[in-house]
Design a protein that fits this description.
This protein is about 60% helix and about 0% strand. By secondary structure, it is an all-alpha fold. It folds into 2 domains: about 30-140, no CATH class; about 145-199, no CATH class. It binds zinc ion (ZN). The site of zinc ion has 8 residues, from helix 5.
Length: about 200
């Protein structure tokens, strides 16, 4: 286990650790605050140029599907103080809103991809660990002498069989084995027909 790794292998480890470090840094840069900002802009339908903070439709509980007057106010549609300038600004802002909407969708897709990729990597690692563990268990332990299925963990028997024997008062192991295996003599008669009881 403690065999020294080649330079190439060590570089490989360093490269992967740098990737992990990078992922951590990136992850920290994606804050709830940032996500919230995007979602809020998308919900309100405004772009990067900000939004009227005093007339958020969410305050009215209606979301984006607020009254048309509200939407008009948000988009700066010509209304109370109309004009072609306002029309242009509104069009610009709606363009920005589309950009925000696309960006948010792209962020969400990227997050899902990252989640999937990392989960796959984590799964492979867990999988390898489990397989190694299984192989190691198989190598270090023989099967139970009684059932032959589970690993022998106590005096040559598996825990389940050991516990059963123990609960029976720890009778003679040879007799217990004969009873357990339902061993018969040459005439087919059970050598130990009844469960041996200990003291
Ligand atoms: Zn067993």
């Amino acid at each position: 286990m403690a065999r020294k790794l080649s330079r190439r292998s060590q570089q490989r480890i360093a490269k992967n650790m740098a990737l992990i470090e990078n992922i951590n840094v990136l992850l920290c840069s994606i804050t709830e605050e940032a996500i919230t900002d995007f979602v809020r802009r998308d919900a309100i339908g405004v772009g990067h140029d900000g939004y009227p903070s005093d007339s958020m439709p969410e305050h009215s509980g209606g979301g984006f599907a607020g009254s048309s007057t509200e939407s008009a106010a948000l988009f700066g549609l010509p209304g109370a103080k109309g004009g072609t300038d306002d029309w242009n600004k509104a069009a610009q802002r709606r363009g920005g809103a589309d950009v925000v909407r696309k960006q948010l969708a792209s962020i969400e897709a990227s997050l899902r991809n990252a989640n999937k990729a990392l989960r796959e990597a984590a799964y492979q690692i867990t999988n390898l660990n489990e397989k190694t563990e299984k192989v190691r268990n198989r190598q270090t332990s023989n099967p139970c002498e009684l059932c032959g299925i589970d690993a022998a963990q106590k005096s040559g028997w598996c825990i389940k069989d050991y516990k059963e024997w123990n609960a029976a008062g720890r009778p003679d192991r040879a007799r217990w084995t004969l009873w357990y295996r339902q061993t018969t003599n040459s005439e087919g008669v059970l050598l130990v027909p009844d469960q041996p009881q200990g003291t």
